[in-house]
Every structure is written in structure tokens, then in C-alpha cells.
């Protein structure tokens, strides 16, 4: 029964997606503007639904961090609307047509960018994903199925309800943005099998959710398990830059996947660099895990065993290790990194380039804070997720990552010999 | 036990892939040239192994088409070597570095092309895939796990054996091109679960094989179920071009996925066009299935019901239908096409453009034969498969489709506010 229900949702969204795929940029922007305005005018019903979710959440004993993510305010609703207005100003990748080559037989080979079709977002207690992902998919011409957690369900439904009239007014089936109102796990499992109608699954949440979706899905899944980002301070580093990048990466915001979780220091600069770090970390209350050569610099440091690295602390906590050389740093990252973001600080351009070439990570930086590793800061405008697997997209995904290209061939009657 | 064995194969190939990823283009080309020469010098052992496969195949009652695909000859071995030499001349996508933008804060955002990692090919009785896919993956810096069918196993092992010394001589672990010597189904299933070490699965074969792999794999799969390609003859078509493109698409080679399986004719040109087609099809022995308005033109035509279209005949057989207009043609293709290749013949450029925009298919052509829809003819140089699903690649896949891009960021010490 759940399979039939899932098929119905997916097929309706796929049908609506065919309408979306043919809209012009101006049409899509008009819908988005109307949606943003509708959200601003719907504070009442959205806040009321959110109160229900918040009360349920408190009853169920959700922790404060989760309740904070769940809570909506007039300002947060307006921020969602602003994000949609911002999308209006971004270039539309759909329809871009580029010449690849003209073949010796005269065939003109081009590529044309088109939407993927239907995207299924699986997420937990963040109601804003409903507005963000709905708008990103619409701008890129895709239908979207939004399957949020039970915790944020009433809020998500109210947000979608506010946005829907803009679809209808522009002749787009409401199923273009489908919110699954039944948080049943069997229905989720059935959705993950709809290979004929859903093109991409994007889970957003903890590692458990992502592993579960990857295990169960028959549809391609964008994976982003965790962010274990390292900073490597090279022997030719500008140590002031290194210090600023370290403090920014570890202490500016700790609960995010682009925060630093590991520091690798070339042994030649350890004696100069680490005492300053120890002082600052002491003041900020950063807990340190370190190898035996390093632990002595940090009061209360916990000694790390050879195999203990690679933790995602998401807190004022960091692993520090001295490395004998560049290759040692690269080898450590290869073993313990999570292919999210890795940073080198060095004044030697050849060393920076070698790091950027050799480190296998979605984002590889020289002399910049790992905190810049998100869609907005990298110039994508907006972000629907971060891929740490390499298929289709690697790293932060913007509008273009929600599209693909088809071959367009133009001839004058050519046939094959 | 099979899970441990699969893990071992996959991990060894992933380790070798890290070596491949760092090779220069010149190094990879040197290995490929040595492989091509080694194949030319290994006729003896390869043909001997192939004789074993052929004898087993005859014992097992394989049909003639399958035996023909299985059979190797000195010329066919040399053709594999030539294909590898051809790859040497193709540009290497790996390492390409392009500027995306310089951000207002001075960060330089670039993208750099890198290999995917490990590709797993699942195929049936074509031993040449062993050489072709092995070489394509090597040129693109990827490790490859080749899991061919039991029927071609001895031939595949002999081909891999001939190619291996070139790897070793250049310091590359032999596991870079891993041939699975155990055709056990449990081992295949276990391979399809190695999400940490295998990045992409490409099945090549019948629809049954591809559905099976898609169902079982936890790794992204390139899907290519079938090719139900249509030709739409518009009311403004040059009917001579249409005739040539029709005959080429249906009769030049029938057992291929880019052959035509459906003909849609605008009703205004049916009376002029169809008698000539009927005569030619009669001479060539093409069997026709048609709607009631059309069947009368063809002696012995079988009448088609409304829901009967969409067959992949792979034979001298075709479905023909008259359509009242352009939209009718597009709607038919949307319902019955397979997102492989669709063709319009028209002298009206606006109509051609509308068709290229509106038809959702990996390859959309105007005034050219569907038979051009392959990697070589579209300018990719070589082809590892055709994707009719949209993730990562859509259409014929060449070297670039075996790579992805990472973000490369270069700063001067910037931190985030």
C-alpha cells in the first residue's frame, strides 16, 4: 500500500516537473517572487503551526540545539523569503546551449543544459529546508519531494501551503513542490525505490540518516557523511596567517561541517607556532588531543594514539599532530580526512599547488579559512547540499548541480556510412 | 566470506587508483602504448584461452550471435590494440584547471578535474570490453574492476594477463586493472556493496542485467536500459532527407541501440512519403507495425493498439504512426521513448529548435541519422557506455565522464567574518 502511495506522489511530481522544465527564466522568477511575498504575508499560520511542532518537540524531550533549529520567528520567515528573492537574481542554468564541435561530416554537436527531473530531499528538523529546497528546485526547473522529519512536519506543511498558491496562479501543478504529510518510515522506504520517477535523493542530516538513505535507496544519493577538515601549517607558512586561519576555522562556529577538526604542523615550525596557539586555545577553552611530541605545549592535552585521529568534534576541541614533512601531512589527510575541505598555509606557491593537486577532497584551499567552504562563499549563490562523493557533483552544490546536459545534434541530412 | 573477498578486491583497486591519479599524461600514454604492443604480441595465449571459452560456449548452447561476440581472431585482437593506441592521442581531461571567479574578498575559486576513483564494469560475453574499459579507465586515471560473464572469463583473463606487465613495468600495482576471476553471483553482489572503495558501476548488457545491477547496487549505477529511438518526419520535412535517414536508421545495422524503432509521420505528408517507404521496406524485408491510418500503405502490416508502442525490435521491424501535429509527435516520444536518441527531419529551423528543446532524451537530433548517436561519432573519441539516466552523465560517456571536478581555492590569509 505504501508502495502505491509512493508511486502516486512520485508520478504526480514527475508530471509537474515536465511543466517546470518548459518554463522560461522570467516565468520561474515571477513564481519565486510571488512565493517570497506569500511567505512574508503568512507569518500567522506558519508561526501557529510551528508552535504545535515546538510543543510536541518539548514534550518529546528534544534537546535545545534541535529546538533552536526547529523554532521559527517572524525574522526567520522573512529570511526564508529573502533567500528566495536572492534566487531570483541568480542566473538560470537551464537552456544554456554551447557548441562542442562541428564534426568533419558537418554535424554540429552542442550540449544543452536541462533539469534533472525530480529531486527528493530527506531531512530532519529544519523547516527552512522546505522553503530553500523548494525554491532552488523550482529555479532549476526540477520537481521536488520534501520528506522532512516528524518534528517539523506542521511547520513544513504550513510553509508549503503558503507557497502553493504562487504555483497554481502560474499554471503549475501543486505537486511541483510536494510535501510528504505522512512521516511513516515505510513510505520513505517506498519513495526511495521510485527509480522511474525520482532522479536524485539528497539527505541532509546526521551520518546515521545518510547511511540509512544510502543503504535503502535505489535512486542515486548525494552523500555527505561528515566534515573532518584539516589545516596543514607548512614549514614555509606565514605563521600569522596560519594562526588567524586556525582560530577562524576552529572557534568562529563549531557545529558546522566546515569547521577545523585537525591541525597538522610541520615539525620545523612547531616550536615557534604552537606556544602562541596554546595560549589562544587556553583563553578560548579549546580542548586539545595531541601526539606525544605536541601534547607538552598544551595544558591538559589528551594524548592521541596512532589510530585515534579522524574525529568530527563539532565543538571547541581539536586534534593536533606534528608531521615530519609535506608528504606526512598529505598521508595523514588521505587516511583521516573526510573529502570535505582541506587547507594548507604556505608562502611557497609550488607547495600550495602540490597540495591542491594531491589532496583528494571536494574543496582544497591554500591560505584561506575552511569556513569559506560553502556554496555562498564559493560563488554558487545558494546551496542545496554538499557532496563528498564524486559522482555528478563534488563539494557544495548550487543550481547547476541540479541540472544535467543533453546532446543536441544538427545536420543537413547526413547518414552513417 | 564473499564480502571479505569483495572488500579485498575493491580496497586493492582503490589503493592502485591513488597511484593512477597522480600519473602524468605522458606516463599514462606510455603505459597504454606498451599495453597495445603487448596485446599484438600475445595472439597465441589470448586465442588459446578464447578457444576454451568458445568450446564451453558451444557446449552450453550459446546462440550464434553470442558466439560471434565471444570469438576473438588475430584481427580482433589487433583492433583492440589499435583502439588503445587511439586513446593515446586523445586529450587527458585529468588535471585541467579552470578559473570560476575571483570573489570580492580576493579568494580565487577554480575547479580542477580529477579521476572518479574506481569504476566497476559488469558485462556479459564481450571479451573486448576488458581491453577497452581497462584502457579508458587508465587514461582517465581510474582503477577498474572488470567483472565479465562466465562465458568470456578465460579470454578476459588472458587479455588482462597480456596487459599487466605494462602496469608493473611503470610502477603501477596490477590491481589497477582487476579482472574478477570468480564469476560467482554472491561475489558480484558483495562487490556492489563496496561503497567506500568503488565510485561507479557501469553495467553493459541486456535490460535484465542492468535492472539486476540497479536493484542490488549501493553504488551509483549508470543506467542504459534500451534504445527505442524515433524519427519524426515533420510536415515541412525534406522528404528525400527523411527517407535516407529512415533507411539508414532502420536498416544499416539493426541490433544496435541507436537503430530506429519508431517512425512518426505528420499526417500532411503521409500520402507523399509512405508509399516510397513501403516500397523500400518491402525490398529490404522490413516488418511494419502501424496504426489504422497507416497500415494500408504496407503489405502485411500488423495493426498497433494505442498502448502497444515502445518496443525495441533490434531487427528489421518498425512501428509507424501518423501524428496530427508536432505536439502529437513530442507526446508520443515522451510516452514511448527511452531517453536515448530522438530525431526530427524538418526544413523549418524553429521547429527543429523546438524539438531539440522539448524532447527529453540524451541525444536529440535534427536532420541527421540516429546511427550517429555514439561516443565516436559525437566527438568523444571513445565510449565507455551510454547513460539514459541523468545523474552525472546523460548520453554517450567518454573520458571526461569518467572524471569529476574538485574546488580549488587560493587566498592570501582570508578568514570569514
From TrEMBL, chains A, B:
GO cellular component: cytoplasm
Keyword Oxidoreductase attached: yes
CDD domains reported in the protein's UniProt record: ALDH_F18-19_ProA-GPR (cd07079)
Enzyme Commission number(s) of this protein: 1.2.1.41
Taxonomy, superkingdom: Bacteria
Alphabetic keyword roster: Amino-acid biosynthesis, Cytoplasm, NADP, Oxidoreductase, Proline biosynthesis
GO MF assignments: glutamate-5-semialdehyde dehydrogenase activity; NADP binding
Pfam family, one: Aldedh
Primary localization class, coarse: cytoplasm
Pathway annotation: Amino-acid biosynthesis; L-proline biosynthesis; L-glutamate 5-semialdehyde from L-glutamate: step 2/2
Annotated InterPro entries: Ald_DH/histidinol_DH, Ald_DH_C, Ald_DH_N, Aldehyde_DH_dom, G-glutamylP_reductase_CS, Glu-5-SA_DH, GPR_dom
Reactions catalysed: L-glutamate 5-semialdehyde + phosphate + NADP(+) = L-glutamyl 5-phosphate + NADPH + H(+)
Annotated compartments: Cytoplasm
Gene Ontology BP annotations: L-proline biosynthetic process
The Aldehyde dehydrogenase domain, residue ranges: 6-284
Keyword Amino-acid biosynthesis: yes
Role according to the record: Catalyzes the NADPH-dependent reduction of L-glutamate 5-phosphate into L-glutamate 5-semialdehyde and phosphate. The product spontaneously undergoes cyclization to form 1-pyrroline-5-carboxylate.
Family: Belongs to the gamma-glutamyl phosphate reductase family.
Protein name: Gamma-glutamyl phosphate reductase
Amino acid at each position: 500500500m505504501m508502495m502505491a502511495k509512493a508511486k502516486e506522489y512520485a508520478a504526480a511530481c514527475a508530471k509537474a516537473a515536465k511543466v517546470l522544465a518548459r518554463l522560461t527564466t522570467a516565468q520561474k522568477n515571477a513564481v519565486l517572487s510571488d512565493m517570497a511575498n506569500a511567505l512574508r504575508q503568512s507569518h500567522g499560520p506558519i508561526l501557529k503551526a510551528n508552535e504545535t511542532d515546538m510543543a510536541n518537540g518539548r514534550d518529546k524531550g528534544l534537546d535545545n540545539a534541535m529546538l533552536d533549529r526547529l523554532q521559527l520567528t517572524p525574522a526567520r520567515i522573512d529570511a526564508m523569503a529573502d533567500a528566495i528573492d536572492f534566487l531570483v537574481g541568480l542566473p538560470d542554468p537551464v537552456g544554456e546551449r554551447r557548441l562542442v564541435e562541428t564534426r568533419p561530416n558537418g554535424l554540429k554537436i552542442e550540449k544543452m543544459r536541462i533539469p534533472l527531473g525530480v529531486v527528493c530531499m530527506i531531512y530532519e528538523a529544519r523547516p527552512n529546508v522546505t522553503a530553500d529546497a523548494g525554491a532552488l528546485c523550482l529555479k532549476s526547473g526540477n520537481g521536488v519531494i520534501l520528506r522532512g522529519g516528524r518534528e517539523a512536519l506542521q511547520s513544513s506543511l504550513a510553509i508549503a501551503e503558503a507557497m502553493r498558491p504562487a504555483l497554481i496562479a502560474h499554471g503549475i501543478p501543486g505537486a511541483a513542490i510536494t510535501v510528504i504529510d505522512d512521516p511513516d518510515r515505510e513510505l520513505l522506504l517506498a519513495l526511495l525505490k521510485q527509480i522511474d520517477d525520482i532522479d536524485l535523493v539528497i539527505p541532509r542530516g546526521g551520518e546515521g540518516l545518510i547511511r540509512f538513505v544510502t543503504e535503502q535507496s535505489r535512486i542515486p544519493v548525494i552523500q555527505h557523511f561528515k566534515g573532518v577538515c584539516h589545516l596543514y601549517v607548512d614549514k614555509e607558512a606565514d605563521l600569522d596567517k596560519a594562526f588567524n586561519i586556525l582560530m577562524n576555522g576552529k572557534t568562529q562556529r563549531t557545529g558546522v561541517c566546515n569547521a577545523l577538526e585537525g591541525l597538522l604542523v610541520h615539525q620545523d615550525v612547531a616550536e615557534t607556532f604552537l606556544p602562541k596557539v596554546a595560549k589562544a586555545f587556553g583563553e578560548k577553552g579549546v580542548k586539545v588531543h595531541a601526539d606525544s611530541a605536541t601534547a607538552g605545549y598544551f595544558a591538559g592535552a589528551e594524548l592521541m594514539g596512532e589510530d585515534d585521529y579522524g574525529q568530527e568534534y563539532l565543538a571547541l576541541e581539536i586534534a593536533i599532530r606534528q608531521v615530519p614533512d609535506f608528504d606526512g601531512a598529505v598521508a595523514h589527510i588521505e587516511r583521516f580526512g573526510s573529502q570535505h575541505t582541506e587547507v594548507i598555509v604556505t608562502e611557497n606557491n609550488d607547495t600550495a599547488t602540490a597540495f591542491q593537486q594531491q589532496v583528494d577532497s571536494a574543496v582544497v584551499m591554500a591560505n584561506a579559512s575552511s569556513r569559506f567552504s560553502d556554496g555562498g562563499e564559493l560563488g554558487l549563490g545558494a546551496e542545496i547540499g554538499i557532496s563528498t562523493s564524486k559522482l555528478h557533483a563534488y563539494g557544495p552544490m548550487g543550481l547547476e548541480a541540479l541540472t544535467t546536459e543533453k546532446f543536441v545534434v544538427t545536420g543537413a541530412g547526413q547518414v552513417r556510412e
